[in-house]
Amino acid sequence: MNVKDNLKVIQDEIESVTAHAPTIIAVTKYVTIDRAQEAYDAGLRHFGENRIEGFLEKKAALPSEATFHFIGSLQTRKVKEVINEVDYLHSLDRQSLADEVEKRAEHTIKCFVQVNVAGEDSKHGFAPEEVIAFVKGLQGFEKIEVVGLMMMAPHIEDQIQLRTYFAELKELQHQVAALGQSNAPCKELSMGMSNDYLSAISEGSTFIRIGTKLVG
């Protein structure tokens, strides 16, 4: 199917569960520039990449109105190569990365703190109990704005358990926002992908990252 038809299916599904449509990020890491352009032509304006090379290629090729999200793990030594092209960083997952972003960024970067809610060894991110202290430690950082929290849910069939994880991140987002920290408004939630975005939206996700189901 073409991207426009895929997008219509996704939008119809979203409307069936919420009146508050989240921002759809087209995850284009496995597709060509032409396919990413097709997504743009279908009306999508947010694009996600997880590798620096692919990120820079797509950003150079697409119109300047496109907003770019870096959604992959970012090595500290690679920050200088990409950070000033980034609109949103979804993988702020350690203090050393925050320090390097603060050092290298020439504009304020909208960041999601990555949280490993399920405690999976294969996933990056802070344990939930570490997040408040980390965010408090960012006071005084001028180049980092914690706009929200991000998670990658486990690949499980149990939708009730999935929603429990998403709800836990939502509660943590409220706790961070309640700090009232000027560089951490933390109003957003980046959670939900092709296999679980409806559950994520039901628990308050405001950004969903869709690859396979949208662009292939």
From TrEMBL:
<dbReference type="Pfam" id="PF01168">
    <property type="entry name" value="Ala_racemase_N"/>
</dbReference>
<dbReference type="InterPro" id="IPR029066">
    <property type="entry name" value="PLP-binding_barrel"/>
</dbReference>
<dbReference type="InterPro" id="IPR001608">
    <property type="entry name" value="Ala_racemase_N"/>
</dbReference>
<comment type="function">
    <text>Pyridoxal 5'-phosphate (PLP)-binding protein, which is involved in PLP homeostasis.</text>
</comment>
<dbReference type="GO" id="GO:0030170">
    <property type="term" value="F:pyridoxal phosphate binding"/>
</dbReference>
<comment type="similarity">
    <text>Belongs to the pyridoxal phosphate-binding protein YggS/PROSC family.</text>
</comment>
<feature type="domain" description="Alanine racemase N-terminal">
    <location>
        <begin position="4"/>
        <end position="216"/>
    </location>
</feature>
<keyword id="KW-0663">Pyridoxal phosphate</keyword>
<dbReference type="InterPro" id="IPR011078">
    <property type="entry name" value="PyrdxlP_homeostasis"/>
</dbReference>
<feature type="modified residue" description="N6-(pyridoxal phosphate)lysine">
    <location>
        <position position="29"/>
    </location>
</feature>
<protein>
    <recommendedName>
        <fullName>Pyridoxal phosphate homeostasis protein</fullName>
    </recommendedName>
</protein>
